[in-house]
Amino acid sequence: MSRLANKVILVTGSATGIGKAIAKRCVAEGAQVIIHGLEADLAANVVAELGSHKAVAHVEDLTAEGCPQRLVDLAVKTFGKLDAIVNNAAMVSQGNIHDTDAAFFMKMISVNTLAPFLLIQAALPELTKTRGNVLNIGSVNAYSGEPNLLPYSISKGGLMTLTRNLGDTLMRENGVRVNQINPGWVLTENEAQRKREHGLKEDWYTDLPKVYAPAGRILWPEEIAAAAVFWLADESGPISGQVMDLEQHPFIGRNPPKDSSTIPTK
User: Entry's SUPFAM superfamilies (predicted)?
Assistant: First the structure.
């Protein structure tokens, strides 16, 4: 039996990377999905791959006023209801205490923390009807992060607190579960491109120091998607307000030796 049969799931940032993998896995498990992203061609490609009877796309910046409500309305108009949202869309950019200005910091918070809150707020009436759930996609950087990922790490820390807080509140008041996955270093299209832009070789991910990749490789988006299904499915029962780290080593308190490679880990 399909684990997500007859469910309607909205996945933000699903034109590429982890979000795309989650959307594809959701459809494979019997769901219908709303694809969201900033690139119209990439979003259209995902819908074409999944089939228009299984997916519909919406292209818009999540921080645009009214975007969360438009996404919810599209789900209800197209598929008749909304069972779950996956807050996956995120801004990933470097910044530290010395080079981060207020505008950059606020943009990071707006995309990575405020936008998920506003989407939950907009979706809550529909999720209450279906006793649905929310899955936030965070990062292991939420616990402290790297020096050059300061604003990003703070934004993901805020998202984790949002998950813990609403996981309690919405379960008691609305019957809606809220949980979170914190991925480690994942080989997405965007991550591969970022590292090439940083000057690394084309196949940089094939030869990583064991301190960063004990398994000899980093995570695949499909592995994050496999874990997401558990939280989106009814089999996770009443569990709410929980955060699950998905990384191949214990991140907290694990500091690479000073002579190790300087490849950033996330």
Answer: NAD(P)-binding Rossmann-fold domains
